Records
---
Amino acid sequence: MKVLLVGSGGREHALAWKLSQAPKLEELHAAPGNPGIAALGTCHPVHAEDGEALLALAGSLATDLVVVGPDAPLVAGVADELRQAGVPVFGPSRGAARIEGSKSFAKEVMRAAGVPTAEPLSVARPPCVIKADGLAAGKGVFVCRDQEEIDIALRAAATLSDSILVEELLEGEEISIFALCDGARAFALPAAQDFKRAEEGDAGPNTGGMGSYSPVRGFGLAEIEGLLDAIHRPVLDELAVRGTPFVGVLYAGLMLTDDGPQVLEFNCRFGDPEAQSLLPLLEGDLLGAMTAATAGGLLSADLTATKNAAVTVVLAAEDYPGGVDVGSPIEGIESAEAAGTLVFHAGTALKGDRLVTNGGRILNVTATGDTVADARERAYAACEGISFPGMRYRRDIAAMAAHV
Ligand code: AMP
Ligand code: GLY
């Protein structure tokens, strides 16, 4: 099979790595890809959101399957453009991707499907959560515990969106639950946790994610199936009834409250950096499962989770999430890889033949091991050997999970 992967982040590098192990893969292409993906396939200078150019590329390559990694092209309707032209796509239509693209739509679907989620509030009063509707790369949500935080959040949210939602503040631990979906059926993947705040101890601003680990204690296959029955499957049914069946990865961000799991948000794709921890734990044929899901026939999948654990640490630019770093030389990846660690590129570029920084989240260092503690130790040992000017990472990724 010839596969075209859309996107250029660490999640897409992890997808490229996993897909390149598929028995049926003949050619892997990426648009636009990154220097890490270029070691596994051919990168094409086509923007991930340029549906017309993607369609032309898929045509010229005679692509058998397009896999869309990020949310922005899906919400923009890239999958529809390709599908209308007869190109098979793993990724939801614009209509189904609204589950991520519009928080008010997601709330409406959850209400109709009877899925537990935070209650909306008609006025902002502490404590509450204020959300800018629409995609904001994890930066449009403000947790407010007093009036001053509410005032700041309302002003900030107004600069991001015309539509603002207020909801009750939920307390508990967060977990990410992913399912491969074929429009009607959901296939469970390992649970993961990510670390959204910029600083250690979950302090500082929200980011796209500073690290992740998988699996999560207490969430084996039986527990995940229970969550899929309560959350993912009713939402799939509701989207199908509305004429927008969901094909792709449905990702539920849950808060484990004293009253049970409640949905914080849905995403229409793999988490980044959760995918970097989750995909190395899968044994079997991801491409086969994606192909079956795309054809609407995901009756079973040759995919199982190993008993291992994985930890991913994000190496970020000094100013992330406020700023990016461009053009600084990166050292030490080869020795980390030689030690058996996976290094997924997120924001890198080639300057001549030198690898340099090119973004906010620069690299993802992923290690597997028998336990979370084991994987964590290996991941951090590898981080020590990598460097670029201003490199910054959280030292407490998966620390609690490693200690219980
Ligand atoms: P979202 O983009 O909706 O997932 O929100 C990003 C992050 O904000 C979540 O991962 C939570 O940490 C936090 N968050 C969102 N909604 C709530 C809520 N109702 N209660 C508490 N925290 C929330
Ligand atoms: N890691 C959070 C996300 O991908 O949305």
Note: Residues 118, 129, 131, 138, 141, 143, 167, 169-170, 174, 196, 253, 264-265 surround adenosine monophosphate (ligand 1) (CB under 6 Å).
---
Amino acid sequence: MAVSGIAIGHTPFFRTARSDYWWAEWLIPSLGLLTFLVIYPTWAVLQGGNYSFGNYLAPFASPELFGSAKAWFGAKPAWYPSWLSGSPAMLALWAPIGFRVTCYYYRGAYYKAFLLDPPQCTVGEPRHGYWGENFWPLLLQNSHRYFLYFALIFLFILGRDAWDAMWFADPATGKEVVGIGVGTLFLTVNVTLISGYTLGCHSLRSWIGGNRNQFSKIPLRAKCYDCVSRLNGRHMAWAWASLLWICSTDFYVRMCAMGVFHDYRVLF
Ligand code: FES
């Protein structure tokens, strides 16, 4: 389908009449996105080892499909491609990554950060027209709702990881006992923040509240819609908090696995 661009008045690139620190509002999120949305996750996903420490599993290696004895499907089978030597979750991580990359908030943020489209409001951009998301590969952004279905499944997977992080082998008896370690806290806060982010999704809000004119006839759905709307109102905050925390949690587990950090814990 042929689509015409909309011509816009052109201010020279990076020029503006603004006298505030608009460039800091562009630079800081850009560096944050580059570090926590691109560099660290790419590094973590490419790591094939040091992703678990006792009952802790690094989030970028979850679900552990193949690998250790605790993996969902046991050791890597003969057919497993050797070039997929990174995280044991490599076959599944396309879902949460796709969900985040197509998120309405992140789209606006990384268009500003990386495509400078525009860098900030009323600041000159490099293009002379506006084309929207009407062409490939940006048409893929419309798949956000489908990624949402998979992202909801991941909440259970990460919840299970947090649950497992509460069960430790007693050093004296070798039996499993309940406890809380620093890693338990990391993994529990991780699933909490990712739930706040996922359950505040714009697509989920439209899924729950769409096609209904009279909420009074569906009180349970109206309650759910209220909850999602409340989370949605702070979607940007949830997006950043969950992004920073998942990277921190992953880093913490890897550092414990490498013997760099000591995991303090209390067993009951
Ligand atoms: Fe951000 Fe759906 S809009 S997760």
Note: The longest strand covers residues 176-181.
